[in-house]
Amino acid sequence: MRYRLLGRTGLRISELFLGAMRFTTVDESRRVLDRYADAGGNVIDTANAYRDSEAIVGEIIAGRRDRFVLATKYTMSRDGSDPNAAGNHRKNLVLSLESSLRLLRTDYIDLYWAHIWDPLTPIEETMRALDDAVRAGKILHVGISDAPAWVTARANTLAECRDWTPFAAVQVPYNLIQRDIEREILPMAEGMGLTVATWNALGHGSLTREPGPTADALRAVAAELGATPAQVAMAWIRTRSRAIHPILGARTDEQLADSLGVLDLALPEDAARRLEATAEFTPGFPADFVGATAAAVYGEAGARVDA
């Protein structure tokens, strides 16, 4: 396992994250974590909405907590009958964070995510509340999951202007048949130096279990490379950007062992292009328009200018 920096921070994070959403039992989850740690992985990603996940993670990292980059999330409702028990406002942040710290058996969170964009809460309130928690030492870095690119960009611009802690990372779904982040979110993240944690690499199983052109292509490429379709799907994601860190969502030790096989898999460029050809995708406006008009905009000399 190799390491990169979390966004524009000095925190070292492994190239693959371990998702704890599917953790259900302590013994099996400990085996999964041990295998991940033995491979060099150091990032555990959970959330207060993932059933008993935080409590399980807290138990299995006891005695070695500081060896891991611990990430969790808030936003999702803690009590459906209480309108203030959900959202990215200060009250929910404070109460959610205290609960997560208690369940995780720690006094700080390495990376605290806003779980989803809350259009009802001003982003200024969210960023200031997160910064207060950083200054209090309860969290070290912050990120946002499942949010428009303009929200993240505005939030970090506000943080820069007001000396608040900026988002260091975004978390988004990404796979061969769900490439929406290539339109705005991925270019924004690369331009702003943000880490991109990706989930749903297998399209909820449709890429490996259901018939179709993309699944057939995955199986064909996997057979050629002596790999599994899941490993090929993950390998394709890893070719897209150095900012991307796929999240491995394993429930069992066997599932994680298969996923970790991607570390030894080099996906040839021609195989990647064949996979992409099976699922139509275009960036859309304005990216397509900007590319199509480049010759008219920059003239003949423009083709000789290196970015």
Automatic annotation (TrEMBL):
One GO CC annotation: cytosol
PANTHER family: NAD(P)-LINKED OXIDOREDUCTASE SUPERFAMILY PROTEIN, NADH-SPECIFIC METHYLGLYOXAL REDUCTASE-RELATED
Signal peptide start and end residues: none
Source organism of this protein record: Actinokineospora iranica
Keyword Thylakoid listed: no
Top-level lineage group: Bacteria
Pfam families the record matches: Aldo_ket_red
Protein's UniProt name: Predicted oxidoreductase
InterPro entries the UniProt entry points to: AKR, AKR_Detox_Biosynth, NAD(P)_OxRdtase_dom_sf, NADP_OxRdtase_dom
Domain NADP-dependent oxidoreductase: 16-278
Keywords for the protein's UniProt record, in alphabetical order: Oxidoreductase
MF terms (GO), sorted A to Z: oxidoreductase activity
